Amino acid sequence: MSNMISGIGAGNSIGSLGSIGSLPGTAATGGGADAGFGGILNSALDQVNQLNSNAQQQIGSLLTNGNSDLSSVMVAVEKADVAFQLMMQVRNKIVSAYQDIEKMQF
Amino acid sequence: MSQQTPLLGELESFLRLTSVREKTISANMANVDTPGYRTRDIDFQAELGRAMRGRAGYEQSAAGDMRMEPVVREVPGLAERADGNNVDLDREALVLSEVQLQYQLGIQLIKDQFHQILSAINGES
Amino acid sequence: MNLFDSLSISASALSAERQRSEIVAANLANAETTHTEAGGPFHRREVVFEPVSAPSFGFTLSDAVNRGGRVAGEVKIAEVIDDPTPPVLRYEPGNPDANKQGYVAYPAINPAMEMVDLMDSVRSYQLNASAVSATKQMIQQSIDILKS
Question: CA of C142, closest CA in chain A: separation in Å?
Answer without folding.
Answer: 5
